[in-house]
Amino acid sequence: MIETYRPIDQNGEPVHAHGGQIIAHEGWYYWIGEDRRGRNKVSCYRSKNLECWEFRNHILTLDSPQKQHPLLPTADLRLEVEGRKAGIGEGCNIERPKVLYNRKTGKFVMWMHWELPDDYKEARCAVAVCDTIDGDYTYLGSFNPIGHMSRDCTVFQDDDGTAYFISSARENLDTHIYRLSEDYLTIDKLERVLWPGQQREAATVFKRHGVYFMLTSGCTGWAPNQGSYAWSRSMIDGWSMRYPFGDETTYQSQSTWVLPVYHPESGETEYLYIGDRWGGKDGYFESGYVRVPIVFDSDTEIHI
Length: 304
Ligand code: DGJ
Fold this sequence. Notes:
Elements: E1 18-25, E2 28-34, E3 40-47, E4 54-61, E5 93-102, E6 107-115, E7 124-130, E8 138-143, E9 153-157, E10 163-169, E11 174-180, E12 187-194, E13 201-208, E14 211-217, E15 227-232, E16 243-245, E17 254-263, E18 268-277, E19 288-293, E20 295-296, E21 302-303
The structure holds (2R,3S,4R,5S)-2-(hydroxymethyl)piperidine-3,4,5-triol.
């Protein structure tokens, strides 16, 4: 059994960054994820050593500035929805936020899953933008990408700056890979439909030695299930079949991110699997995390 990771911040508060990501930026690791306490939606923490976490900001809240992006024609800027009973937290439901840094525009762009408070029927993605990684993000709008349903989601930025938004489509039956526009603010095109009908969630992508890996989970609500991985030498073509990853509950976790950690002493890069150990809808605020290094059995075979 992998022990639950339950970090606290400098104020002694539990770190709430669920369904999130950890990214390196200017000598820090920034942890960004769901924070559903009160009017918070997304929070940001940082650390030098991945152990001591400093709370930085509630980077997206129900009170965040909103400015509709002209290229998001179906955008609905309401973050707060009157008369709909909240699921967990106040207002709309924001899940699995992920931030990309755009080298050309100098902006940090957040992609996330957006729902009305009490069900998952809207299946939209949403976008927000900021000048700094841990500042107050401006909310730009929510929409169905090229008209598709979009639930669990992640992003991936390739070495050449091309960025992708990956999400569960068609009632979670299919996994879509979209290419983002150059400024990362909109969808450019649908590049690939993976594993039609196979019902995957919780996708996360990383790249090692020119090989792309995509981890996903099955769809069992808040309960953990058998994760799987696939690999490819291109983001667009040639994805392998899916192979099981972890045990039948992925060691009581659901994938959310993989963080490359460079160790200067050994010159090696470790790839840290980061999963959520959800407390469920009623125990959501007790949710913890799982962190464990990925083992590479070959260039294309992994396990934890
Ligand atoms: C599984 C998803 O991966 C989570 O992000 C969340 O949407 C839960 N389902 C809700 O049941």
